C-alpha cells in the first residue's frame, strides 16, 4: 500500500507540474503582448510630451543656446531673464484680461443656456421640436470660416467691431454644447422626473435638483472643452479686434515677435525666441492646471453614456 501511495503521489505531482507549465505557456504570449502595449504607450507618451517639455526647458535657456544647442540642457546656464524681459517688453496681462472676460461671459452663457436647451430637447415635447433640433444640428455642418464675413458685416452694422460685444456675442450659444447636453440628459430616467413632478417640482427645479447632479461629469467635460475652445480661439479675435488693448492672449502671442522688436529695438532674434518660449509657457499653464484639476471628471464625462447597461 505504501508503494502504491508513493507512486500515486508522484503521478499526481507530475500532472500538477505539467498543468502549471501549460498554464504558464499559455499566459506567456499574453504577458508579452501586454508588455508590448505598455512599451508602445510609453513611447507615445514621450513623443506627446516632448515638445511641451522642450518648450518649458527652453524658456529658461539663453537665446543663443536655444539656437546653437536646442536639445542640450546646461543647468548652470538656466535663467529667468527671458521671463523678466518678456513682462517688461510685452503687456501679457492685457491678453490674459481680455481672454478672461471672454471666458467669463461667453463661457458662462454657454454653460448656463446650452444645458437648459438640451434639457428641453431631451425631456419635453413641443411643436416643431424635431425641426428645431435638426436646424441646430445643421448649423454644425456650416464651416466656421464661411460665417466670418456675415458676422463681421453684422458686427459692423451694430458698431461692435473692436469691442467686447463683438468678441463675445457670436459665441454665446454653441450648437455642439446643445447636442452634447441633450444626448447626456436623454439617459436620465424619466421615472425620476415624473416622481419629482408628482412631488410638485417645477421644470427648473427638476433640472437643478435632479438633472444637474446626475450629469456633473458631462458638464465638467463640457466646461473643459468650452474653456479650450475660447482660450485657443484665434481666427475670430484677430479679425474683430484692431487695437492692442482688445487683443486676446492668442492674438497677442501671434504678434509677439513684432511687439518685442517694437518695445526693445536692440533685441536679437535669439533673445526674442527665448521670450517667445517664456510667453508660450505662461499661456500653457492655465490649460495644464485646469486639465490636471478636472481630469477625472473630464474622462468620466467623455465616457458617460458610452456603455449602455
TrEMBL record:
It holds the Pfam family BPD_transp_1. InterPro entries: MetI-like, MetI-like_sf. The chain crosses the membrane at residues 35-57, 100-122, 131-152, 164-181, 218-239, 272-294. Belongs to the binding-protein-dependent transport system permease family. One of its GO terms (cellular component) is plasma membrane. CDD domains: TM_PBP2 (cd06261). One of its GO terms (biological process) is transmembrane transport. It is a multi-pass membrane protein. The keyword Oxidoreductase does not apply. Keywords: Cell membrane, Membrane, Sugar transport, Transmembrane, Transmembrane helix, Transport. Residues 96-294 form the ABC transmembrane type-1 domain. This is Sugar transporter. It is found in: Cell membrane.
Amino acid at each position: 500500500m505504501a508503494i502504491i501511495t508513493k507512486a500515486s503521489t508522484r503521478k499526481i505531482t507530475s500532472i500538477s507540474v505539467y498543468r502549471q507549465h501549460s498554464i504558464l505557456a499559455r499566459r506567456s504570449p499574453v504577458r508579452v503582448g501586454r508588455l508590448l502595449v505598455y512599451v508602445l504607450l510609453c513611447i507615445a507618451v514621450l513623443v506627446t510630451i516632448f515638445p511641451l517639455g522642450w518648450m518649458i526647458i527652453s524658456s529658461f535657456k539663453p537665446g543663443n543656446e536655444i539656437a546653437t544647442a536646442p536639445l542640450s540642457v546646461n543647468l548652470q546656464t538656466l535663467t529667468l531673464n527671458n521671463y523678466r524681459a518678456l513682462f517688461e517688453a510685452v503687456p501679457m496681462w492685457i491678453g490674459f484680461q481680455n481672454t478672461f472676460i471672454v471666458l467669463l461671459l461667453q463661457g458662462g452663457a454657454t454653460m448656463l443656456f446650452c444645458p437648459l436647451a438640451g434639457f428641453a430637447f431631451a425631456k419635453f415635447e413641443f411643436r416643431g421640436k424635431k425641426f428645431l433640433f435638426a436646424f441646430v444640428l445643421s448649423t454644425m455642418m456650416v464651416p466656421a470660416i464661411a460665417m466670418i464675413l456675415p458676422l463681421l458685416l453684422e458686427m459692423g452694422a451694430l458698431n461692435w467691431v473692436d469691442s467686447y460685444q463683438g468678441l463675445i456675442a457670436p459665441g454665446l450659444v454653441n450648437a455642439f454644447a446643445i447636442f452634447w447636453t441633450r444626448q447626456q440628459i436623454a439617459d436620465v430616467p424619466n421615472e425620476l422626473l415624473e416622481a419629482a413632478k408628482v412631488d410638485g417640482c417645477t421644470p427648473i427645479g427638476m433640472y437643478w435638483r435632479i438633472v444637474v447632479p446626475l450629469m456633473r461629469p458631462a458638464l465638467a467635460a463640457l466646461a473643459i472643452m468650452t474653456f479650450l475652445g475660447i482660450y485657443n480661439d484665434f481666427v475670430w479675435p484677430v479679425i474683430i479686434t484692431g487695437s492692442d488693448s482688445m487683443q486676446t492672449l492668442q492674438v497677442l502671442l501671434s504678434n509677439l515677435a513684432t511687439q518685442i522688436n517694437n518695445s526693445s529695438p536692440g533685441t536679437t532674434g535669439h533673445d526674442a525666441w527665448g521670450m517667445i518660449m517664456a510667453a508660450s509657457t505662461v499661456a500653457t499653464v492655465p490649460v495644464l492646471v485646469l486639465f490636471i484639476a478636472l481630469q477625472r471628471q473630464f474622462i468620466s464625462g467623455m465616457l458617460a453614456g458610452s456603455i449602455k447597461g
